[in-house]
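Need a sequence for this fold. Nothing fancy.
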């Protein structure tokens, strides 16, 4: 009996030492020191002989280890929950940022594509607008013919006889002209013009009107346009014109306003208009050879309107 009891005590001491070492290696802290466990087992063996106490002691040590091992699992779960909450909060903050500031690969590619598109559009506009935007044309009167010479002599005689004596209800003949204008197109795009129309004014009083024939205008080219003009001078207007011409050394300034429809490439249509102040030399009209030189100077303002 003594030998078996001693063997049981040694086994208990060995198991206690192993439990203490296991607890220390797992960083849970020792449940009991080797000395304390040995004393407890020895006391138990003296008071109550048998091998049941050793089993109870071992079960107590295992239970303590189980309790100690549960704590780190709970702490890990808590730490994982904190990490998940922080990630959710960071994601919510990122969602509030502008989409182009998102630091994801897809968003960066989208921002890059948009930036390149805007850049190339700006370059195309900078290059294309000077080429496609209408530039003002230039024109020169190359021919002016009076269809009825006798009508002009009526006005010459009226001035010589004294224009002040002409009654306001007097009937004065109309003047009909046929003219040719050389138009210069400085644009890199051509087009075709419809029939143009224009009016002639003197001090906001209408003197006459005319039409311009349709034409095909090629890019960077010159084209000859034909126009028919009719002038109707009533007695009241004639008196003002005669007074001005005599006072300004036979010079007369008139206003011409006209427009025409232009059809460009791809069927693009626009209205091209012009308002001109024209200084004329009346004396040049008296001779057929010099009528084309009647215009001394001109100032024109051009306008364009796209049609829908």
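Here you go.
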């Amino acid at each position: 009996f003594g030998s078996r009891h001693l063997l049981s005590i040694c086994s208990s001491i060995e198991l206690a030492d192993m439990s203490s070492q296991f607890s220390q290696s797992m960083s849970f802290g020792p449940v009991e020191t080797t000395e304390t466990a040995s004393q407890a087992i020895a006391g138990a063996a003296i008071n109550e002989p048998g091998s049941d106490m050793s089993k109870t002691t071992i079960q107590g040590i295992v239970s303590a280890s189980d309790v100690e091992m549960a704590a780190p699992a709970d702490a890990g779960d808590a730490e994982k929950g904190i990490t998940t909450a922080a990630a959710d909060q960071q994601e919510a903050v990122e969602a509030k940022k502008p989409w182009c500031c998102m630091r994801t690969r897809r968003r960066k590619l989208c921002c890059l594509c948009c930036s390149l598109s805007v850049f190339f559009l700006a370059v195309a506009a900078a290059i294309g607008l000077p080429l496609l935007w209408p530039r003002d044309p230039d024109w020169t009167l190359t021919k002016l013919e009076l269809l009825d010479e006798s009508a002009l002599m009526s006005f010459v005689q009226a001035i010589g006889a004294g224009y002040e004596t002409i009654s306001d209800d007097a009937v004065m003949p109309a003047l009909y002209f046929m003219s040719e204008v050389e138009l210069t197109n400085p644009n890199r795009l051509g087009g075709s013009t419809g029939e143009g129309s224009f009016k002639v004014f003197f001090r906001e009083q209408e003197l006459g009107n005319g039409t311009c024939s349709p034409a095909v205008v090629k890019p960077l080219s010159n084209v000859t346009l034909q126009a028919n003009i009719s002038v109707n001078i009533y007695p009241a207007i004639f008196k003002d014109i005669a007074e001005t011409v005599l006072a300004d050394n036979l010079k007369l300034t008139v206003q011409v306003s006209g427009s025409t429809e232009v059809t460009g490439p791809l069927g693009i249509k626009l209205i091209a208009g012009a308002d001109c102040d024209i200084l004329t030399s009346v004396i040049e009209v008296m001779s057929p050879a010099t009528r084309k030189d009647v215009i001394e100077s001109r100032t024109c303002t051009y306008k364009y309107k796209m049609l829908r």
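For context: Strands lie at 138-146, 175-185, 191-193, 196-202, 205-212, 215-217, 221-231, 251-263, 269-281, 295-306.
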